[in-house]
Design goal:
By secondary structure, this protein is an alpha+beta fold. It is built from ten helices and seven strands. 36% of the residues are buried.
């Protein structure tokens, strides 16, 4: 689905459960008192009847949406993942699982149920806090994460982040993994992959330039990390995103 720059949708709901992957662009979605900002490789779980409003960014947005019914949703309801509520998940295992699910659906190779259950296993773990912790990170750690998220493409060194936060690098790495479930380096790679995905979805920037603009050393570095994160090469993701 394509949405124009600046397009907005007033509060509404859908009669079916949906899963949506943002392939490129950005949006802000509001459900009740909660608000989420989403970009490339963000995934939203949206149960039927969830009232929400959307506002799309300056570049619009392109999404891939799955309506859940039939054998996959019945298997999910009968499984042990429980009922998932409205939630945005940004990058990481959820994005990879969603992309793998999308490929299975597009290939129509009979593995939809298996891929759907794998996807919901990942989403259930994230929703229940399985990839992080419920307690609040210290203020200095929030500043470190914001520094990474604000511009992941620039050169980032763990020791420099620790120096800026006023803590030892070992303290930083331990606290980061405790609260975010991954290493600092993995988080940086995740954010760079998301930026690369957004550029790839535009369909015109050469992949070598995408690599440099996303903070990777070169195209081969981007390809290695991108494939590890998403299961697709940058070229394959571009084909998927521009066809969605």
């Amino acid at each position: 689905m394509d949405y124009a720059a600046g397009e907005s949708h007033a509060a509404h709901s859908h009669p079916v459960d949906t899963l949506t992957l943002v392939c490129g662009g950005s949006l802000v979605e509001r459900a009740g008192s909660a608000e989420a900002r989403a970009g490339a490789l963000s995934v939203v779980v949206k149960p039927a009847g969830t009232e929400h409003s959307d506002r799309f960014g300056s570049a619009g947005a392109r999404t891939f949406q799955v309506v859940l019914d039939g054998v996959v949703s019945r298997s999910i309801e009968e499984g042990d993942t429980g009922r998932l509520g409205w939630k945005w998940i940004h990058g990481g295992p959820a994005a990879r699982a969603m992309l793998e699910f999308a490929q299975v659906l597009k290939d129509a190779n009979g593995r939809a149920e298996e891929a759907g259950l794998a996807l919901f296993g990942v989403l259930g773990a994230v929703t229940e806090g399985g990839l992080g912790r419920d307690d609040q990170p210290p203020r200095w750690l929030r500043r470190v994460r914001e520094r990474i998220d604000d511009d992941p493409a620039r050169p980032i060194r763990v020791w420099r982040l620790a120096q800026t936060a006023g803590v030892h690098p070992v303290s930083l790495t331990r606290a980061f993994r405790r609260h975010h479930g991954v290493s600092v380096t993995s988080w940086i790679h995740r954010r760079r992959v998301e930026r690369a995905a957004g550029l790839l979805s535009g369909g015109s920037v050469p992949i070598a330039r995408v690599a440099l603009q996303s903070g990777f050393a070169d195209q081969s570095h981007l390809t290695r990390i991108f494939r590890r994160a998403t299961g697709l090469t940058p070229a394959a993701y571009r084909r998927f995103a521009t066809a969605s």
